[in-house]
Amino acid sequence: DADVTQTPRNRITKTGKRIMLECSQTKGHDRMYWYRQDPGLGLRLIYYSFDVKDINKGEISDGYSVSRQAQAKFSLSLESAIPNQTALYFCATSDLRHGETQYFGPGTRLLVL
Amino acid sequence: AQKVTQAQTEISVVEKEDVTLDCVYETRDTTYYLFWYKQPPSGELVFLIRRNSFDEQNEISGRYSWNFQKSTSSFNFTITASQVVDSAVYFCALTLLGGGTSYGKLTFGQGTILTVHP
Fold first, then answer.
1. Nearest residue in chain A measured CA to CA from B42
2. pLDDT of residue A107
C-alpha cells in the first residue's frame, strides 16, 4: 500500500462548487503539505502543517482552506472553485528525523469548468 | 527568499547519450538541503536525492550522479547512458534548515523536461 494517498485521483467540478481533496499518510510523519502544479510553473506551496495544531499559509493560499484532522490526515478545500484552480494537486509529508525529505502522494487532477 | 532556477526547459537526447540537468539556487542561509525529484509521465513525484549544504561530495548511484558546488550555487544532475525510461520531468528543490518562516518548505525550480529517444 502507498504511504501517501490522495482522494480523489481525478475530479471534474463546476465553477462555484465547494470541493475537498483528501490526503492520508501511513509514514508517521509530523509535517504535511499541499502543492499545486501548473505547466511551466513547477510546484507551488498552498498550505503546510508541522503538527496537528499548526497550520500555515504558503505562497498561494488565496481561495483555499485546509484542515488537519489528525496527524495522518490533511484536507484541502476549495470553497468556491474557479477555472484557474484547474491544476494537479499534490500532498506531501516530511519528518525532521528523515532529513525533511518530502514524500509525495500520487496527485489529484482537478478540472474546474 | 530562496530561488531555484532550472534554465533548461526541455532537453532531447538519443538513448545512450549522457545528459546533464542544471540547477542553480539562491539563498542567504548557510544551512539547507537540496533535492532532485523525478516526475515520469504517470505523474507521481519520485524522490531521487538529498544533499546537505555541508556536504559537497559528489554522489553516484548507478547511472545517476550529482555534482554539488557551493562556490557556484549549483547542484547538477547527470544521467549516464540515458535510457527511454529516463524520460520525465526533473525538479530541483531547496529547503532551509534551522528556524525561521522558510524552515521545512520546499522551493522548486520550474522543472526540466527530458525526452530520451530510442
1. A106
2. 96
Provide the shortest C-alpha distance from residue B111 to chain A (in Å).
6
Amino acid at B37: Y
Tens-place pLDDT, residues A15-65:
999 999 999 999 999 999 999 999 777 899 999 998 899 999 998 999 999
**Percent of chain A whose pLDDT exceeds 70:** 96
pLDDT value for B116: 97
Nearest to A94 among B37, B104, B109 (CB): B104
pLDDT band at B102 (very low <50, low <70, confident <90, very high): low
Residue of B nearest to A101 (CA): B50
Long-range pairs for A6-10: beta carbons < 8 A, 24 or more residues apart:
A6/A89, A6/A90, A6/A91, A6/A105, A6/A106, A6/A107, A6/A108, A7/A108, A8/A108, A9/A106, A9/A107, A9/A108, A9/A109, A10/A108, A10/A109, A10/A110
**Cβ of B47 and A106 within 8 Å?**
no
What integer pLDDT is reported at residue A1 of this predicted model? 57
Yes or no, beta carbons of A99 and B33 under 8 Å apart: yes
CA B104 – CA A27 distance, rounded (Å): 17
Phi-psi label, residue A26: left if phi above 0, alpha if psi -120 to 50, beta otherwise: alpha
Alpha-carbon span A111 to A10, nearest angstrom: 8
